[in-house]
Amino acid sequence: MTVRGLMPGYCGSGLSAHLPPWQTSDVTSDRPPDLHMLNVVVSDMAASLDFYRRLGIAVPAPDNSAGAHVQLKMPGGFSLELDTAESARLWHAGWRVDPASVQVVINFVLPTRQAVDDRYAELTEAGYRARQSPFDAFWGARYAIVADPDGNDVGLMSPAKESRRTWPPRQSPAP
Known about the structure:
Radius of gyration: 18 Å
Number of helices: 4
Distance between the termini: 44 Å
CATH superfamily of the largest domain: 2,3-Dihydroxybiphenyl 1,2-Dioxygenase, domain 1
Shape: globular
Largest sheet: 7 strands, mixed
Strand content: 15-25%
Strand order of the largest sheet: 2-3-1-4-7-6-5
CATH architecture of the largest domain: Roll
CATH class of the largest domain: Alpha Beta
CATH topology of the largest domain: 2,3-Dihydroxybiphenyl 1,2-Dioxygenase, domain 1
C-alpha cells in the first residue's frame, strides 16, 4: 500500500517528484536541514539531570553548580540540551515575551549562515510566526526561530565557528 506523503520522491506541495524534498519555492540547498538538537527549558536543572541520568543518558557528574545550560550528547551526534530560564532568556526573544509559550525548541542545522537568513525570510514571508529573528549567537552560530503550524518553536542554526564566539553572552534581538 502506498501512503500519500510517505512515497519516495513525493513532496506533497505540488513540486515535481524529481525535486529534492528539501527544495522550497525560493530556497534550495544541496543539503537538507539536519535535525541537530532539542532544547528543553527546565525549571530545576538538578532534578532534570537526575532524571536523564536515571534514564541511562551520560550526564555530567552531579554537583550543585550544574549551570544554566547542559549539553547531553547522544551516541549518534544528536544533542539534548537543557536550559534554565536564565539561559533561555539570552537566546530566545519569544521566550522573554511569553515564557509559558516555550518548553521545547526543535533545532535544525543549515549549511551556511546565509541559509539561516534565507530560510527564516522564506518561512516568515509564507506566514509562519517569527519567534527569534536571525542573529549572531554568542556560541558562534547564526541562529533564528520560527513557529511551525502548531506553534512549536523550530530553531534554524548555521554551523558554529570558534572565531565567532563572544563572551559574555549578549541577549538576542527582538523577533
